[in-house]
Specification:
Layout (H helix, E strand, L loop, with lengths): L2 E10 L4 E10 L8 E9 L2 H8 L15 E9 L9 E5 L14 E4 L4 E3 L6 H23 L9 E3 L5 H12 L4 E5 L5 H7 L3 E4 L15 E6 L3 H10 E9 L13 H6 L2 E4 L7 H14 L2 H7 E5 L3 H9 L6 E5 L2
Parallel strand pairs: 8-9, 8-11, 9-10, 11-12, 12-13, 14-15
Antiparallel strand pairs: 1-2, 3-4, 3-6, 3-15, 4-5, 5-7
Helix pairs in contact: 1-9, 2-3, 2-7
The structure holds NADPH dihydro-nicotinamide-adenine-dinucleotide phosphate.
The site of NADPH dihydro-nicotinamide-adenine-dinucleotide phosphate (NDP) has 32 residues, from helix 1, helix 2 and helix 3.
Length: 330
């Protein structure tokens, strides 16, 4: 039995509070699964920030190791799908929520949750994309299914300086769309333009009380914010346009009206990355390989040492993180 370092969230039942810190775990602490992985890289998503800070009830089993994304090398496998030495990629499946996650030097997971690391990406690049970037791709695919073509009109991206937003801008601009980036950090305008945003707007213009219908502005939108922002966006989408909603950084509610749906034929697509089936994931990673400009990905990425991951998780829910963080675990 060998020990390994992990971030562990524990709950104090009596006080209903939680604590988080580094601990030494051993193999007996690992949960069920048929593949043991030496974790090399992870990343910090908004959800990891919610888990570490306890600001939303993301963790549903204690003790928990947070971390919803990983790249690692298989150490042992009882599955025919993977052999020791294989490089694997994990995104979601309740890891970091109900099953011990990726902020650890070792993990045991189900082979059904793992994909071979796509050959077009280094471990750092795959984690610079991570759940945030793969979700951005799922949202782009939803707009494509709606037949929103480059040149059809401006496409809005909210939470633009965050992880989903940064990758969504790079993808949409790379495909030839006119991208409008909405941010609370207008000082990041140069960064957003370097990813391909054609225009940058202040997110405050989308947070007032939503009208049932407002001036038609965008043919489509990718929204990482939710709440009044999503309601305002829906009221501003052009006739027959669509919104891909994937986030709640500004709220879980949706304080709008049905007017955009019944008077403008607007469509609202829901995006879930966590339990998306394997063929959907493979298709999204294939498109990321084909369409994501690696220089823009590098611009959006910053490395964090394993020891800095708890602080980084706190920073992300405080809106202090730009783009994507890659955590160097092993
Ligand atoms: P980030 O923190 O990197 O990005 C979120 C961005 O939202 C911030 O950078 C900020 O952008 C903006 N924002 C933050 N707080 C507020 C606020 N109160 N009001 C308006 N805007 C705000 O997180 P991620 O990109 O990792 O995730 C974004 C959202 O998408 C989260 O809610 C996350 O839970 C969700 N998500 C959902 C997934 C799914 O499967 N559906 C998968 C991945 C993420 P700026 O400073 O530019 O304004």
């Amino acid at each position: 039995m060998s020990s390994f370092k992990a971030v562990v969230i524990r709950q104090n039942e009596a006080a209903a509070t939680q604590s988080v810190g580094f601990e030494s775990l051993d193999d007996a602490d690992l949960m069920e699964g048929d593949v043991t992985v030496r974790v090399e890289r992870s990343t910090v998503n908004y959800k990891d920030g919610l888990a570490v800070t306890g600001r939303a009830p993301v963790v549903r089993r204690f003790p928990m190791v947070p971390g919803v994304d990983a790249v690692g090398t298989v150490e042992t496998s009882e599955s025919a799908l993977f052999a020791p030495g294989d490089r694997v990629l994990l995104n979601g499946w309740g890891v970091g929520e109900t099953h011990l996650g990726a902020f650890a030097e070792r993990a045991r997971w189900k082979s059904d949750w793992l994909l071979p690391l796509p050959s077009g990406f280094s471990p750092d690049e795959a984690m610079a994309i991570g759940t945030a970037g793969y979700t951005a791709m799922l949202a782009v695919l939803a707009l494509e299914r709606h037949d929103i073509k480059p040149g059809a009109g401006p496409v809005l991206v909210t939470g633009a300086a965050g992880g989903v937003g940064s990758i969504a801008i790079a993808l949409l601009a790379g495909l030839g769309h006119h991208v409008v980036a909405s941010t609370g950090r207008t000082e990041e305008a140069d960064y957003l333009k370097s990813l391909g945003a054609a225009e940058v707007i202040d997110r405050a213009s989308l947070t007032g009380p939503p009208k049932p219908l407002a001036r038609e502005r965008w043919v489509g939108a990718i929204d990482a914010v939710g709440g009044a922002t999503l309601a305002n966006i829906l009221s501003m989408i052009r006739y027959d346009g669509a919104v891909a909603a994937c986030g709640m950084a500004g709220g879980l509610d949706l304080p709008g009206s049905v007017a955009p749906f019944i008077l403008r034929g607007v469509t609202l697509y829901g995006i879930d990355s966590v339990y998306a089936p394997k063929p959907v994931r493979l298709a999204a990673w294939e498109r990321l390989d084909r369409d994501l400009d690696r220089a823009k990905l590098a611009r959006a990425m910053r490395r964090v040492p394993f020891d800095g991951v708890i602080e980084a998780a706190r920073d992300i829910v405080d809106g202090k993180v730009r783009g994507r963080l890659v955590v160097e675990i092993g």
